[in-house]
Amino acid sequence: MTHSMSVSLHKMHVKRRGKSILGPIDLELAPTGFTMVLGPNGAGKTTLLKVLHGIERVSSGSVQWSVSGAQAQQEQAYVFQSPIMLRRSVSQNLAYPLQISGISKAEITGRVETWLDRIGLSNMAERPATRLSGGERQKLALGRALIRDPQVLFLDEPCANLDGRSTREIEALLLNTLHTGTRIIMTTHDIGQARRLASDVVFLLNGELHEQGRATEFFDEPKTPEAKAFLNGDIVE
Amino acid sequence: MNDILSGIQAAFWLIVTLDADLIEITLRSLQVSLSALVIASVLALPFGTWLAVRRFRYRRATIATLNALMGLPPVVVGLIVYLLLSRSGPFGVLGLLFTPTAMIIAQVIIITPLIASIAHQAMRELWAEYHDLLISLNTTKRQRIMTLIWDGRRALLTAGLAGFGRAIGEVGAIMIVGGNIDHATRVLTTAIALETGKGDFELALGLGFVLIALALLVNFGIHSLSKTEREGRW
């Protein structure tokens, strides 16, 4: 990692058809760590991730990465809530991000092999990606996101609908990634998972930033009653 | 009924004896329609895909026009190409009228909107599926179009085959611009029209069956080459 990327949102507001979806939000995210975005459905978690990644239009306010916009997007990767599989083989899916950045064939082959091994799909390299199971798709999507060594990784509920074993495999991959210096920003509905992984937490409610802080503090002593209720598993509206 | 039976018989004998005229006519049919297909595909497939990916001001109008042009009457296309290529027309100096080239030009005009429109429909769905990923990966417009064309190649093949079907069975335009000249611009469809006019139903039917067989053969050939319906759904 040559440099790190921090980001600040200033009065960032996303509106669609006159309705406020998210914000206005002021938020600073440090260049390292594992940020968990929590909140009930429709709180704006996915929108926040997309805004940070630069693929959602902002109605007002600003999103400022510490590097230029083009460079920021180049060094980020995003894993969508329902993994998008290219209609190609597993290894071709992994190779795709490298191909479009014009990396030599020899290097692509090598990196694809490495990542097939890391995500545990070596034995299905030539299988059509559209025929994979949910867990395998999720792992492939994660591998495809990581193969370009991004500095920032966004994950939108990567473990939704996965069983324990797949979840554990993905969490192990994520912790590995974190230790190589990649910044991770992720949403989840699984409080246990949030406790296991997060270094800091952003808690959204009804499109507004409700609470932000270090994970240990947030989980042990949430400042607001809503956050407390959310952590207790109550239904927050 | 008798006519049809003797037609099948005639077709059979024409093929078995490798009738020289039949082979010449059939090869010319293939030459004209396949050339038109290749040219139209080169134009229409990227254009249809581009339409799916690109948002611009007159996009809806363009798509509506394209869909309307699918129903372009061949006879009118033939007439316009005729006027353009005739001695007194703007391209008269090229001397293309009543040549296979003129027939190819007419067919390209007829099938390009058809192929582009079907390609656009197919690519629009694929683009909806790929949109988020390709945007997130920061792909260029060109890369997006190439990715869609490659991953949607089977759908595009269908578009191409629809175009070929229209071209090989088309008679109105090529009759006008080709002139149905023996040993020069006579193809299966124009020959059938001629033989029917002369009352030689046997030969006309025979040619008709050859035409149908040819269309089937090309379709099967392309499908087996591209392995459609074999490796799953894509």
Write up this protein:
The complex is a heterodimer of chains A (237) and B (234). Chain A is of the alpha/beta class and 237 residues long. Chain A has a domain at 30-57 and 65-84 and 152-231: Rossmann fold, CATH 3.40.50. Chain A is 38% helix and 25% strand. Chain A has 9 helices and 9 strands. Chain A has helices at residues 45-53, 69-74, 90-100, 105-118, 134-146, 164-179, 191-197, 215-220, 225-231, and strands at residues 7-16, 19-29, 34-38, 60-65, 76-79, 152-156, 183-187, 200-205, 208-214. Chain A is globular, with a radius of gyration of 18 Å. Chain A starts with 6 loop residues before the first strand and ends in a 6-residue tail after the last helix. With 234 residues, chain B is mainly alpha-helical. Chain B has a single domain, classed as MetI-like fold (Orthogonal Bundle), CATH 1.10.3720. Helices cover 77% and strands 0% of the residues of chain B. Chain B is built from 10 helices and no strands. Chain B has helices at residues 2-16, 20-53, 59-69, 74-85, 100-136, 141-151, 153-168, 172-178, 188-198, 201-226. In chain B, helix 2 (20-53) crosses helix 6 (141-151), helix 2 crosses helix 7 (153-168) and helix 5 runs antiparallel to helix 7 (153-168). Chain B is globular, with a radius of gyration of 20 Å. The A-B interface holds A 53, 55, 73-74, 77-78, 80, 84, 86-88, 96-97, 100, 128, 130-131 and B 126, 129-130, 132-133, 135-140, 143, 147, 151-152, 231-234.
